Known about the structure:
In chain A, 34% of the residues lie in helices and 24% in strands. Chain A is of the alpha/beta class. Chain A has 2 domains: 7-45 and 208-248; 58-190. The longest helix of chain A is centred in the first third of the chain and has 39 residues, at 14-52.
Amino acid sequence: MNARSSTLRLWFRPSLLGLHVLAVVALAACLAGGLWQLGAYDARQEHERADRQDVPTVPLAEVWSPGDPFDATLNHRPVSVTGTFGPASEQVWVSGRTQDGQDGFWLLAPLELSGDDALLVVRGFSPEAGEPPAVPAGEVELDVVLEPGEGSSAGLDADRVIDTVRVPTLVNELPYQLFPGFGISTTPAVAAGLPLAVTPDPDVSWTVGLRNLAYSLQWWVFGAFAAFMWWRICREQVEDIQAREQERAPSDAEPVASLSP
Amino acid sequence: MSEPAAPATETSGLLRAYQVLATVLGFNLIFVIVAAVAQRVTEPTSWWNLNEDLIFTIDQVHGLLFMILLILIAVMASRYRWRPSMTISTMLLATVPLVSFWAERRATRAAHRPV
């Protein structure tokens, strides 16, 4: 043997092999843990996305009953509704809408579903708020995308223009029990010739399932820590051995405390 | 023949920090485990389930403190020239309720031993 064993050889001493195995196992476990949590994050994102757009259109009554609050699973949900539009004079323009770079209004109309219950429906988009167009006569069936009611409003003005779709405000103006949310129609037949209002981007925020994403990063940080510890322990062991060999002690009779079994 | 240990004041500072953190974490760990079990076995209206958010925050704090503990153990292992098995077992035993206290005592004894 040379005066000093080659460093490489020392790294593969039998006493260090256990450490190498442990490091591989720990790294594999951390990698798997990270992938598992990343998968959980993807699944949550996918689930959320499905909740928003990739679900089949079902009749409104299957997902929402009069009197129920608007819960998160209803957000952006496509449903079909059957009902009768209230008189054209009950329609409302919602200001402050932008579509294709054009400022304009939503045409909002109450759709009477059953009894007193009505759903506010955005029929279409118009650059100007004039005389409200006529409503389709009789019972109609249309598809809408459900949206939660909007925030504070300055109220309905004399021209029947309101700045937000705030249901508690509109409930005082219309003779119906309104659902606490509204639908954006995707049925051109009821749009009175107007372009359909664009439904909001159903983008899923990257923060949905953030906890799983953080956990997966954590696993990888642990893996990096395990790799660092492995490297450091091995290096210290090798250095200790080299130091002992350099000292050229008469024998190994005096073991270094930290290396004794 | 053995090399002198690191300066005494610095050493005791590191050891002290480890002892305090390990002890705090030992109790914290017992709470985390008890809370996790209690949340599963008690009814939804129990204190454990009503204070889910508080318990989740405590769990997260525990996790962060534990990472600091691992770093302290790694520094100690290097300074006191611990055997790899000592380092690894000290890290692992810190995750076992009650046993973590014994692991801290053992690590303290090892740190007091001359290098």
